[in-house]
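Entry type: protein chain
Record version: 2
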Amino acid sequence: MKVWIDLDNTPHVPFFAPIAEELERRGYDVVMTARSAFQVQELADHWGLQYTAIGRHHGKHRLLKVLGLMWRALQLLPFYLRERPDIAFSHGSRAQGLICNLLRVPTVLATDYEHARVLPLAASRWLILPEALSESQLAKHSAKVLYYRGLKEDVYAPRLQPDASVLESLGLVAEDLIVVVRPPATEAHYHNPESDALFDELMSFLVGDDRVRTVLLPRNERQERELRQAHSEWFDSGRVVVPPKAVDGLNLIWFSDLVVSGGGTMNREAAAIGVPAYSVFRGTIGAIDTDLEKTGRLVLVERADQVRSRIQLVRRDKGSAPDRTPRPALLDIADHLETIIDAECGRRD
């Protein structure tokens, strides 16, 4: 049986790398495609993944998004005709969902944010969700749902192998108070401008503290250019570093003292390895973040006047080794995919 994985966004790379390895260990043939968007292909190369590069990101304009989706779906067609996969698996690839639905190829979506927009023509036949979403609108409106334990970041968190050379590559030393910051996803359909105000206040707070070195991780080159043009004072201070190329986010987080993100994945990565995490995301809060807040693994910053009171600039002890105990998420997802393949394609000999 052949499984087609489409890497559509940056967080999909570390998530699918262990899954692909586990599926191949079980005897499945895995083929991958990757979109030229954000740091997808750079990270796929970093993880040593074999993929076919197809399509690109088309910006935040709604019409261009729709046209870009349709165009990438067509671009994926020759790959499908060449590889003839039995099932398609993604963490939110609308283009893959669209072309596979037209071709009647079974589709599986693993997602952890229930408020993401679902396009009817690209909707997946099966959903694999974290247990925290068992009461969400996704669970209520889909007939074929399977659940895994923990976070999606638990799939790859146990593979963390700390490498302090990441600090040297960024001109940092272990004695610095290091804050990793991910700006809001300004091109996402769920973006709320309130996040921008929180982000601006956050950066002013960090740049104004002589102890802090901020590692800023823009989502793409366009966002970096816009930030440099609008806030040259952040970068003139010498205390804000932008990596010149894609870095292993989990490794960078391990050597940081705290993480502040305008999205979800980086905060959940921090939570998965025990690093303090703060969210300045102002879209609709999902069940995962709500659960992390209740258990004290994430702090939600909701207003600009809370930035300086809720975010604690404190060095943490980095001397201990990360917890590399295997977590159930990876095997749960692989088991679920086998169940789906048996249901859709018949049991293998």
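Comment: The chain has two domains: 2-157+327-345, 163-310.
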